[in-house]
Write a structure and sequence with these properties.
- By secondary structure, this protein is α/β, with parallel strands linked by helices.
- The protein has seven domains: about 5-100, GIY-YIG endonuclease (3-Layer(aba) Sandwich); about 105-185, no CATH class; about 195-260; about 280-465, Rossmann fold, CATH 3.40.50.300; about 465-515 and about 585-730, P-loop containing nucleotide triphosphate hydrolases (Rossmann fold), CATH 3.40.50; about 515-585, no CATH class; about 730-820, Alpha-Beta Plaits (2-Layer Sandwich).
- Helices cover about 35% and strands about 25% of the residues.
- The strands form nine sheets. It has a seven-stranded parallel beta sheet with strand order 14-15-13-16-17-12-18, with helices on both faces. Strands 19-31-30-20-29-28 form a six-stranded parallel beta sheet, sandwiched between helices. It has a five-stranded antiparallel beta sheet with strand order 2-1-4-3-5.
- Helix 1 packs across helix 14 (about 420-430).
- The longest helix has 18 residues, at about 740-760.
- The protein is globular, with a radius of gyration of 31 Å.
- It starts with a strand and ends in a 6-residue tail after the last strand.
- About 40% of the residues are buried.
- Its EC number is 5.6.2.4.
- It is an enzyme of class 5 (isomerase).
- InterPro entries: DEAD/DEAH_box_helicase_dom, Helicase_ATP-bd, Helicase_C-like, P-loop_NTPase, PriA, PriA_3primeBD, PriA_3primeBD_sf, PriA_C.
- It comes from Acidobacterium capsulatum (strain ATCC 51196 / DSM 11244 / BCRC 80197 / JCM 7670 / NBRC 15755 / NCIMB 13165 / 161).
């Protein structure tokens, strides 16, 4: 057995750490528990060797896995992500393993030598010499030191229980170095259990039964004839007191057992419109994909199909084909809300072969699903971006639905893009990868133009359904003709009324949360801003709680950091009472629609109404059943929902994004308009779209009106080529952040001077400059934008930059390197 192993730890340091194996025999790709500074961390073994490190290596504390849990292929993928996205390998591996539920960490405190001296001095000279705190607090300090005097570390909860010390007191003792803080970790089984009730004995003969009251008979009747028993939680739904079950247990008639919980797929009640025979375009697309799966080897496809063309049916058929040939599949969807909808269709098609992976699952649930996949109990995986790391064997097919969606980009370390990682994983596995969208990203579209991807086109909707007619309403002319600013145009109101009168459904996109997104003082011009971010607070109007019969929820809220405050009666700057609410969000849109259409059954879909795991499913179920006939919401409503009763879509204010300082503004606007327009006319009846705009001449709006992606892409790519933006150059956003603005400016200037002095000829540097959003979560922000037509040159500069940042004392947590940045705000 090699004497040493290199371990990747989840810390922001770009290196592995060497430990001695001792009596352990870990495998490459297995988890181990190791000491690191004052903590105990779990890491992944990257290499076994006999090369002694320059300093004495600490021994491993434990081996958590007898065998490797990461295949060589996934380890190679992790190394590629670390290299491509300039990210620490340990943090990459942490993102790949959803097994946090299997490691429990505890914070411990122990006494230091300085603390012992203080304890000894206090015992000899009196507590008044030890600290300047009040006498009562000094007594608690003495009690803490006395409790820890043995040298054994103790948990915070135990210390507080025994001594009455507060967290602030313990932190003060840490600052005085009387105490040291460390963490301990222990492994545990993440398998969830549930309590199940079953009959304790055969109760066939009534003569053998003791006297039972009506409630007890109700429970026994529910258990009768069910060999496996009934979950206790389900018995609580019976109209009997909770104590009844306990009485039956004490009398020996019912037994309670703890059993492992099999993961139950939630949200599978989404209505499915049945299987349809594939049309010719679908069959041709399927033939190309399945042919590639059968041949084996890496082959990337771009599936460009208009909204409603039946891309999902092609996905299902392709995965069925792969499964029949012993191959596994991964299907990525952009939003958690779409996962249950897609999982419902996959579950009907493949049963228990389906596994779910997304961040809305509990840690224990994610661990269960991950182990099911690894044990090959599930060979069809559906999930959001992290599902690309699923430990499937014999991977034959990867599908990325709505590949253009920005949510595939991870906004924390490691800042990977799941679409690009999917392509690399398919390459490493020798698998087929399909990127599907009605509005492909220009990066993928250009790869198809250059022949890197094979393009598959699906130009028509299934059953020859027509694309919806799109009408533009010029809101400048609307203002001139009505003499007032209105949220909804006359055309949209008239068309919505006609739609409701025909018994059909309508959707209105209003892509802002809350009621109003600016609160302004008309006396002094002061805007009410978040105290943590340089962002205006959004006004959320009170709503009436039907149970409490009282208004709840009125507040000003920051949608970046979550800060909330009450509505002031007067301006905090000039004390004026003239506060003015500007802008309209989805909440105000719902209120206005209720006033205009009092008979409509209105629903709202945004982050305020869709919070829990089942909220979206319940809302969509009401929409499918017709319980809701008018839906207003943010861009969530544009995300792939298939509601056949919707014949009208209204778009309000979606072109505001054209004014943002982002080179992707036109692309995002076109994608949003096209995607939300695609919700109309997906059933038997034709659809219509009303787009309210202040920029009717803009090519993004005009091309969306004509459903003409090709013309939009041609024009936008021409501008990108002129300005050398992606896909014609690689970009990286280097973001610096600090609570101290002076320190931040010093760091930014140091990096700017270094980049200028180094004179990298292949890399153009823009900045440093203040970020468009200058402060978020109390952190001031400045950034530099690096552009290059040579990705190798750019990555070399980024590594040198990170090394220089360490030399000038910029902490890793304060320097963010976002390769292929999607959001530049």
């Amino acid at each position: 057995m090699p004497a040493f192993c290199d371990v990747a730890l989840p810390v922001p340091l770009d290196r592995a750490f060497t430990y001695s194996t001792g009596l352990f025999a870990p495998e490459v790709g297995a988890r181990v528990l190791v000491p690191f500074r004052n903590e105990k961390l779990s890491g992944i073994v990257l290499r076994l060797h006999d090369d002694p490190p320059p300093v004495e290596a600490k021994p491993l504390l434990a081996v958590m896995d007898e065998q490797s849990i990461l295949s060589p292929q996934l380890l190679d993928l992790a190394r590629w992500i670390a290299q491509y996205y300039v990210a620490p390998i340990g943090e990459v591996l942490r993102a790949m393993l959803p097994l946090i539920a299997e490691v429990r960490r505890h914070v411990l405190y122990r006494i230091t030598d300085t603390g012992r001296e203080a304890l000894f001095a206090g015992a000899q000279q009196g507590s008044s010499r030890r600290s300047r705190l009040p006498a009562a607090e000094q007594d608690r300090e003495y009690a803490v030191l006395n409790y820890l005097e043995s040298g054994d570390p103790a948990r915070v909860s135990a210390i507080r229980s025994k001594t009455g010390a507060s967290i602030d007191l313990l932190r003060g003792m840490l600052r005085k170095k009387w105490l040291a803080r460390e963490t301990a970790a222990e492994t545990r089984t993440a398998q969830r259990t549930m309590r199940v009730a079953r009959l304790a004995q055969s109760l066939d003969g009534e003569a053998r039964l003791p006297r039972l009251n009506e409630n007890q008979q109700t429970i026994l009747a529910a258990l009768a004839g069910i060999d496996g028993g009934v979950p206790v939680a389900q018995l609580r739904e019976l109209d009997v007191p909770d104590s009844t079950l306990g009485t039956l247990v004490r009398r020996g008639l019912v037994a309670i057992e703890e059993r492992p919980v099999d993961f139950l797929m939630s949200g599978l009640s989404i209505r499915h419109h049945g299987e349809h025979k594939l049309i010719e375009a679908q069959q041709q697309a399927l033939a190309q994909i399945t042919g590639s799966v059968e041949e084996g080897g890496f082959r990337p496809y771009l599936l460009h199909g208009v909204t409603g063309s039946g891309k999902t049916a092609v996905y299902l058929a392709a995965m069925r084909h792969a499964l029949e040939r012993g191959k596994s599949s991964i299907l990525l969807v952009p939003e958690i809300g779409l996962t249950p909808q897609m999982a419902a269709q996959l579950h009907r098609a493949f049963g228990s072969e389906v596994a779910l992976l997304h961040s809305a699952l509990l840690p224990e649930e994610r661990a269960e699903q991950w182990h099911r996949i690894r044990r090959r109990e599930a060979r069809v995986v559906v999930g959001t971006r992290s599902a690309i790391f699923a430990p499937v064997e014999d991977l034959g097919l990867i599908l990325v639905d709505e590949e253009h969606d920005g949510s595939y980009k991870q906004e924390s370390v490691p800042r990977y893009h799941a679409r690009d990682v999917a392509v690399m994983r398919a390459k490493l596995a020798g698998a087929t990868v399909v990127l599907g969208s009605a509005t492909p990203s220009l990066e993928s579209w250009n790869n198809a133009i250059e022949g890197k991807y094979t393009r598959i086109e699906m130009h028509e909707r299934i059953h020859q359904r027509p694309m919806p007619e799109v009408e533009l309403v010029d809101m400048r002319r609307e203002f001139q003709e009505t003499g007032a600013e209105h949220l909804f145009s006359r055309t949209l109101i008239d068309q919505t009324q006609a739609t409701l009168d025909r018994g059909e459904q309508a959707i209105v996109l209003l892509n802002r949360r809350g009621y109003s997104f600016v609160v302004l003082c008309r006396a002094c011009g002061e805007k009410l801003q978040c105290e943590n971010c340089s962002i205006s607070l959004t006004y959320h109007k009170a709503v009436t709680d039907a149970e409490a019969h009282a208004p709840v929820g009125q507040r000003l809220e920051c949608h970046y950091c979550g800060y909330k405050r009450t509505i002031p009666q007067r301006c905090p700057k000039c004390d004026s009472e003239h506060l003015y609410f500007l802008g309209a969000g989805s909440q105000q849109g719902e209120e206005r629609l209720q006033e205009i259409f009092p008979g409509a059954r209105i629903g709202r879909m945004d982050r305020d109404t869709v919070r829990g795991r089942g909220d979206l499913e319940r809302l969509l179920a009401k929409l499918h059943s017709g319980e809701i006939n008018l839906l207003v919401g943010t861009q969530m409503i544009a995300k792939g929902h298939d509601i056949h009763g919707v014949t009208l879509v209204g778009v309000v204010g979606a072109d505001h994004a054209l004014g943002l300082p982002d080179f992707r503004a036109a692309e995002r606007t076109f994608q949003l308009l096209t995607q939300v327009a695609g919700r109309a006319g997906r059933g038997e009846l034709p659809g219509k779209v009303i787009v309210q705009t202040y920029y009717p001449e803009h090519y993004a709006v005009e091309c969306a009106r004509q459903h003409d992606f090709h013309s939009f892409a041609e024009r936008e790519l021409k501008y990108r080529r002129w300005m050398r933006y992606p896909p014609y150059a690689a970009i990286t956003n280097v973001l610096l952040q600090s609570e101290d603005f002076g320190q931040l400016a010093h760091w930014a200037a140091a990096l700017g001077r270094w980049l200028s002095a180094a004179e990298f000829p292949d890399v153009r540097v823009l900045g440093p400059a203040t970020a468009p959003i200058a402060r978020i979560k109390r952190m001031h922000r400045m950034h530099l934008l690096l552009k290059s037509q040579s990705r190798q040159s750019l990555q070399r500069v980024l590594r040198l930059l990170r090394h220089h940042a360490e030399e000038v004392g910029i902490p890793p947590r304060n320097l963010i390197i976002d390769v292929d940045a999607v959001h530049l705000m």
